[in-house]
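Lab notes, practical 5.
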Amino acid sequence: MICFFPARKAATPLLYIVTVGILISPGFISAAAEAVPALVGRLVDTTETISPTERERIEAQIRELEETSGGQMAVLLIPSLDQEPIEAFSLRVAETWKIGSAERDDGVILVLAIQDRKNRLEVGYGWEGFINDARAGDILRQMRSDLQREQYERAILGAVWAVQRCTTLDEMPTEDEREEYLQALLDEGDEAGQLQTEESGPFVTLLKWLSGIVFALVVWFLFFRSGSRSNDDDHDNWNNSSSSSDDSDSGGGGGSYGGGGASGSW
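Output from the prediction step:
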């Protein structure tokens, strides 16, 4: 008696192909990769590395860049890339945030992965003429010594100013020019803080404390009287956004990116 059984091994190659196809599919890779943080302002720091005072200085510098150039810039600090290439992660951020205008694609995103000690400057299509790959690499190299000393604010400020010089004057600042600018900028901030401290005697401190309480009560009263409001513009049209790639969720202006820029490490 001859018995015939189905050839089970014949299905093995097909099962292998299907499994590999799922693993390398964009949807699977995207789900496993680091999620893109929400765009909540010009500076997104998920590492809590930047202090409130440093944040104010950095965002003020970015606002100055935007006013003089007409474009947009955002800075992102994350703990780790989880082994994803920084080029791939940065491009995902750019495609999600869409920094820059849809008409001019004039945007730049600076990404720093603190634990991995890697950074990247992602440049929109419209600014690739001002910030080509070589200039983007120069900007990152100028940041290296500050990053090695964990002077993150100084490194970011220098990068923002370099982007401003490239996009408004079409020139890359030298190391000496960068050092002179940063020294003046940070000294000015320290002097302002010291002057404020010296002028704050006991009476002034008490007055500020009472004013703060009154202000908080007024805000509380107005808030509950008018009801909760959504979609507040806390960052000059830099709206909160989800990590979705839909245009409606983007806090940027619709700028497009094609992988231009440079990557570095420290």
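Observations recorded by the TA: Residues 87 and 119 are 9 Å apart (CA to CA). The longest helix spans residues 202-226.
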